[in-house]
Design brief:
This protein has helices at residues 22-36, 72-92, 106-114, 133-136, 152-156, 160-163, 204-215, 230-236, 244-253, 270-278, 295-302, 315-318, 334-340, 346-356, 359-381, and strands at 4-8, 40-45, 55-58, 98-101, 121-124, 145-149, 166-169, 192-195, 218-221, 262-266, 282-285, 307-310, 325-328. The two termini are 27 Å apart. It contains 15 helices and 13 strands. The protein has 384 residues and is an alpha/beta fold. Bound molecules: uridine-5'-diphosphate.
């Protein structure tokens, strides 16, 4: 029997995303592999998504990312409008075997509220599980809504009620891992890269300060709030400061950005992103939060670039200290480790990615979880 999965990617960005996009990248990586394994995929996203699927559902014409950090009273309808469309589709048809949901908080609450009116559901938790304690601490998804994490460290932080709904964790993956062990080495430059949203948790302020203190060239790549290019941020003027990540950038990061040793290049995508990371002597993750999954971490390994990071969240699960990267609990030590990272063997990084972080491996794990979730839901319907 062919399994039909409604993949709910949410209304925030198209799939694949235009550049930055953690969750949308995961969906774009997972779906082609699922389809290769024979799964039919109905994608609930925005109309501008171009990922090949079997069917699409959308409410918004384009991604609503620019609204994500506006005040709640202005944007609380966005996720709800999208989910309303999903619920209507689920009610109107009976061919969906499972919902694989990625919409933070609202997706989980909606599916739990639908109960037996919805197919069994797997909700992937992509974020820090110390969030939403009132929802996660009191979750009742019955026997039909299960969750999975993207690392063991992330799930360990979950409240008990959420853990009771968990069917385990699946590490993130990247298409760059396919054949990474056979890819020829790229000439390394002098620069170090921090790839990610500019945000206090990702710690670009610390990375930039250390770069100037220790004296290594640092490239910061990623959006500042909704602004993908330095010229867009400059053109937005003072109003942009309403966004907390913009304030963080101006107040904590920009003072270190001299355009020479430390540069912010905005969002990079495609080949430009891959060249930037592959040519770096190290990828730096000066984390101040418990990184839940770390796509950029596994991408860096696949591109043959060792990872230097604070020992937080999923990092110890993804990186072997002394082989594929260098980890420390001491923020101030990161600068020295960046200098030492040149001693690591980049082939080890690529080999690790080719074995552990391929989309195929991730998709196989998800198919196992789909079967598990459906079995648990079916068992709950049987008479005792
Ligand atoms: N990314 C990108 N261009 C950028 C910055 C980030 O393509 O300028 C991508 C990055 O390669 C990764 C994703 O955005 O695939 C970020 O995912 P991650 O799990 O590392 O971080 P999140 O933002 O989801 O916490």
């Amino acid at each position: 029997m062919t399994l039909t999965v409604l993949m709910n990617a949410g209304p925030w960005l198209s799939v694949p995303p235009p550049g930055y996009g953690g969750i949308e990248n995961v969906v774009a990586t997972l779906v082609p592999e699922l389809r290769r394994l024979g799964v039919r995929v109905v994608l609930a996203s925005v109309e501008s998504s171009t990922l090949p699927v079997d069917e699409r559902i959308s409410v918004f014409p384009d991604g609503q990312f620019q609204n994500l950090q506006r005040p709640y009273n202005q944007v609380c309808g966005v996720a709800q409008a999208h989910l309303h469309g999903v619920v209507r589709a689920l009610r109107a048809r009976d061919d969906i075997d499972l919902v694989h949901d990625h919409v933070e908080a609202a997706g989980l609450a909606t599916l739990a509220a639908m109960g037996p009116d919805a197919p069994p559901a797997l909700h992937t938790l992509h974020w820090d599980l110390a969030k939403h304690p009132e929802l996660y601490g009191n979750l009742d998804g019955g026997q039909r809504v299960r969750v999975n994490g993207v690392s063991a460290a992330q799930l360990a932080r979950a409240p008990r009620a959420l853990q009771e709904h968990s069917v385990g964790h699946v590490h993130l993956s990247t298409p760059l891992a396919v054949g990474a062990d056979r890819r020829p080495a790229v000439a390394k430059g002098e620069h170090v890269v921090i790839l990610g949203r500019i945000n206090p948790g990702k710690g670009q302020d610390l990375g930039a300060r250390l770069a100037r203190q220790v004296g290594f060239p640092l490239v910061l790549a990623g959006p500042v709030g909704p602004y993908h290019r330095p010229e867009d941020l400059a053109a937005a003027g003072d109003e942009a400061r309403q966004n907390p990540d913009v304030r963080f950038f101006y107040d904590q990061v920009a003072p270190h950005v001299d355009g020479d040793l430390v540069r912010w290049v905005g969002t990079v995508a495609g080949q430009e992103r891959d060249d930037l990371v592959a040519g770096a002597r190290a990828s730096l993750f000066p984390l101040r939060w418990e990184e839940p999954g770390g796509t950029a971490v596994v991408e860096s390994l696949a591109l043959g670039t060792p990872v230097v990071a604070t020992t937080r969240g999923c990092l110890p699960e993804l990186i072997e200290h002394g082989r594929t990267g260098l980890l420390t609990a001491d923020e101030e030590e990161l600068g020295e480790l960046v200098l030492a990272a040149g001693l690591l063997d980049e082939d080890e990084c690529r080999r690790e990615a080719a074995v552990r972080f391929t989309p195929e491996r991730m998709a196989q794990r998800y198919v196992e979880l789909y079967e598990g979730v459906r079995r648990l839901a079916a068992r709950s319907l049987q008479p005792a």
